TrEMBL record:
Annotated Tail specific protease domain residues: 312-471
Pfam families registered for this protein in UniProt: Peptidase_S41
Protein's UniProt name: Peptidase S41 family protein
GO molecular function: serine-type peptidase activity
Lineage: Bacteria, Pseudomonadati, Bacteroidota, Bacteroidia, Bacteroidales
GO-annotated biological processes: proteolysis
InterPro entries for the chain: ClpP/crotonase-like_dom_sf (IPR029045), PDZ_sf (IPR036034), Tail-specific_protease (IPR005151)
Record Gene3D superfamilies: 2-enoyl-CoA Hydratase, Chain A, domain 1 (3.90.226.10), 2.30.42.10
Amino acid sequence: QLFRIILATLHSDNNNFFNDLCRFIPSIAGLKKESNDLCNDSIISQIRMSWLEDSKKLGSKLQKKLFTIKQLERSGFNYAVGPYSPQNKERLICFRNETAYDNIPVSDDGYRILCLFRFWNMMYYFHPYMKRKEDHWLSILPQYIRLFANARKLNDFDKACAMLACELKDTHTTFYGFKTNLYGFGEGIYDDGVLPIDVKLIGDELFITKFLTAEAVNMGLQIGDCITHVNGRSISTIRQEKDRYLQFANDNANQIPIVYTAFHGDSVTLNIKRHGIERVLFIRNWKQYARTFLDDRTAPMKLMEVGEGVFYINLSQITSLELKQKLDSIKDSKGIIFDMQGYPFDQNSAEVLADYLYPKPTCLFYYTYADLKHPGVFRKNPNMFYYGKQNPDYYKGKVVVLVGGGTMSKAEQLACIIGASPKGYVIGKGMMTGGVWGNTVVAPFTSGNATRYTNIGAYYLDGYCTYPNGVIINQAVPFSAKEEKGENLRKLIEYSLNYINVR
């Protein structure tokens, strides 16, 4: 149907375009209108569909027909989107009748337009946070129509798909089936050269935090230097280009800010600020400084006592069985510091923690689900999720959970469970976590490509939306660019001990 419409309207002038589109709208005579007009307090978010309101763009005849279709009564069955099953308590959806057309080459103009048409609409009506980005999603469509129309080469097509998915700024985004190595050197994000350093992004400034090789200390850079330009181009300008291929919901979740320093060739000129003084540094033959990579020996232990009666547990390195055994052995301690700055080693740790920390089953947050009768509407899921059990012997000491930009998805759920416990407290390296709390599904492009996205919305009980900032943080800890990984952890533990011992 889409292809027929395109061919029929391809050579239409503005006066006939709307009439040509109207010819393809099926008859709606005799169909019922929606009776309650969505008067339901379970609606948490709803797109405005503001594009329907402009009669000058649509023409009055076409606008009237589309409004009538929008108001029609629908059953719960949706051909494009899979139904919920009784076992599917989170009410995840799937695009059951959309295939990836693995064998159709990207040189086929029609299927590239189908790819854009289909994915843009899937996200417009079924992304749980589209309400927050609807204006942006509408505004980018013309540019992507041109981009997909011209993407006849495989590399260009892969990049177009990646750019479109990354417009969502959904940290869960992952690509499948792409032939182009978008995250490798020489493609997409990176240029040929990347200096052997770690950097921290603060606004549009990059601060050097670590040298990755033994030779890197001889480049002329220092820990704490602020990089403002690469080969004469400002970091803000470079970000505008590179962010097209980055999916992170917020700056703190950005795991690869080094991409903003990438350059082409064997040499690079950096503008830096050091102690308030601006300098220009030319680094010739950068590869000579990238030979002997250093081992990262700063990874913290699974378990350790960090103060009198206070224990540190790294949830990124411990199994749920080890966790249960350790917690049972320290149930009379003064306090516990849980490190959830990475991803949990064992997802069953959530149940172990809740059973240990809560005196009774507790509901902490709710999810939203897509209303198949009204595309673009997300409702509160009536299936509430409880954590913990009846446990008069629950842990009575204070607990702290450490979070940061690397706290994403399941890690955010664990952090909330700990932080919302009777004596829980959340300390953050920065004010935001990943902002992608909730399960995912895969949405197909064409030519075998697909991507993952967040399928349900997650909210605290008071209505606070976890996108894009993630877990609510009680106290953010400031860090300087010169503080390395081990020093960062020591500082976070110091703040935690202050909460446990003083407050």
